[in-house]
Task: inverse folding
């Protein structure tokens, strides 16, 4: 399956945050999340396993109460049902991969 980024329409999430759903199957989903400086991915948790790659920018991630600053080229892992959130320190993009896919994102 091919999915061209230029053809994907972003959807609004929190203020200053948009999401593009890229390729997915029942077991796996990849999304590109764009952040303006200062915007936040509010604290939440979900059953899905999540790995995030920092494609651009700088972010402060908190995962299970531990906070670290990550930059372009870094990655983070969010286990199932562990609370996490992010603040964008420098405008950027994240690539999120979920297992299984996020049905809630398709609504």
Result:
């Amino acid at each position: 399956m091919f999915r061209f980024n230029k053809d994907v329409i972003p959807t609004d999430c929190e203020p200053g945050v948009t999401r593009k759903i890229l390729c997915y199957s029942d077991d796996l989903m990849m999304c590109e999340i764009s952040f303006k400086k200062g915007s936040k991915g509010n604290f939440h948790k979900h059953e899905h396993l999540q790995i995030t790659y920092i494609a651009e920018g700088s972010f402060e991630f908190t995962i299970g109460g531990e906070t670290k600053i990550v930059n372009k080229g870094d990655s983070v892992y969010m286990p199932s049902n562990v609370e996490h959130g992010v603040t964008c320190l420098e405008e950027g993009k994240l690539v999120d991969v979920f297992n299984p896919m996020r049905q809630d994102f398709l609504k």
Q: What stands out?
A: The radius of gyration is 13 Å.
